[in-house]
Design goal:
Elements lengths: L3 E5 L5 E5 L5 E7 L5 E3 L19 E3 L5 E2 L3 E4 L2 E4 L8 E2 L12 E5 L6 E8 L10 E9 L4 E10 L3 E2 L3 E3 L15 E4 L1 E5 L12 E2 L11 E2 L9 H6 L3 E6 L7 E5 L4 E7 L3 E5 L15 E5 L14 E2 L5 E11 L1
Antiparallel strand pairs: 1-2, 2-3, 3-4, 5-15, 6-9, 7-8, 10-11, 11-12, 12-13, 13-26, 14-25, 16-19, 16-21, 17-18, 17-20, 20-23, 21-22, 22-26, 23-24
């Protein structure tokens, strides 16, 4: 039985979250003229999430993004994970966090300001070492700040890199995000090979279609003659965030007048321009900005570590601030 929870604030903003996958089903915010619309892609029928293949609005874990050859070295042991994208592992496996029913820990059913869900992931779940306990807390305040916090611990040394996977479209009546303006606080990004895996480099964004240091339309250079864009059929790349900047990314859409600012304590943000959406959705209908550690970090020693030591506490937070231009 999929349960549904609602958060709202005094400004009329409301967020609907379901127990399956901890999925964010709706984020309803006002346009410039006060019209409330859902700015994330989703299904009306909760049962459709059971077979969804796009990770719509879902919690992702134990490891967001890809791990090459579904394996990595940990304490001199080779760990083998489930293969679910050719030979590689993506987003925690076929039955990762996004396909599990999360248990209710706490819900502010009166004020509807916060919700906390939990999941127990047993030792060798999709191949990951350690019995892992993970709690996720969603909260919405009257300053229009929506916060997602991850808390976790494992009884064995493991890796952990969770995220939330919403597809944003600030003007839902338009089936494209290519006219959205985007700014990312990043001077470098991680190029990928033909399997969408990091090639081990970290490249500067200057003089490339990956330079979003100033606000510009996503579609402006998406069809450029650029090898990286051709591999991914658009953007599907992790950006290295500037530690000095309080704001990780900002998107806006001039017709609706909506604006979204993302703040995070994570080192990277994955920009995905919805290049492979189909069926109920169309290509480029939604935009993901997934705050996370870098893809395939366990196999790249020059990337920040995603190791979680036994009995140590994991914590991360990302905040979404809704406003108008």
């Amino acid at each position: 039985m999929i349960k549904e929870y609602k958060l709202n604030n005094k400004n009329g903003i409301s967020i609907v979250i379901i127990s399956f996958g901890g999925i964010i089903k709706e984020i309803n915010t006002p346009s410039n003229n006060g019209r409330f619309e859902n700015i994330v892609l989703g299904y009306k029928d909760n049962n459709k999430y059971l077979n969804d293949k796009y990770f719509l609005g879902a919690l992702i874990g134990r490891y967001a993004n890809r791990i090459a050859n579904s394996s990595f070295k940990l304490n001199d042991n080779i760990i083998h994970l489930e293969e679910n994208e050719k030979n590689n592992h993506i987003h925690g496996g076929k039955n990762g966090f996004h396909k599990k029913n999360w248990e209710l820990v706490d819900y502010d059913s009166h004020e509807k300001k916060f919700l906390e869900l939990s999941l127990f992931s047993k030792h060798l779940d999709s191949g990951y070492p350690g019995n892992l306990n993970c709690n996720v807390r969603y909260s919405l305040n009257d300053s229009n700040e929506f916060k997602i916090e991850f808390f976790a611990n494992s009884d064995k040394h493991t890796i952990f890199n969770p995220t939330s996977h919403s597809y944003f479209n600030l003007n839902p009546s338009n089936n494209s995000i290519l006219n959205h303006k985007l700014k990312i606080s990043s001077i470098a990004y991680i190029p990928i090979n033909n399997e969408f895996l990091p090639n081990g480099e970290i490249n500067k964004v200057v003089n490339t279609p990956f330079d979003f240091n100033y606000s510009r339309e996503i579609g402006e250079q998406i069809n450029s003659d650029n090898k990286q864009l051709k591999i991914a059929s658009g953007y599907d790349h992790c950006f290295v965030l500037e530690k000095e900047s309080d704001v990780a990314a900002e998107i806006s859409e001039k017709i609706s007048g909506r604006k979204l600012i993302i703040k995070t304590d994570q080192p990277g943000i994955q920009l995905y321009s919805g290049n492979h959406l189909s069926g109920s959705f169309t290509k480029n209908q939604g935009l993901c900005l997934e705050t996370q550690h870098f893809p395939d970090s366990p196999n790249n020693n020059n990337f920040p570590s995603t190791e979680l030591k036994a009995n140590h506490q994991y914590y991360s937070a990302t905040c979404y601030v809704f406003s108008n231009i």
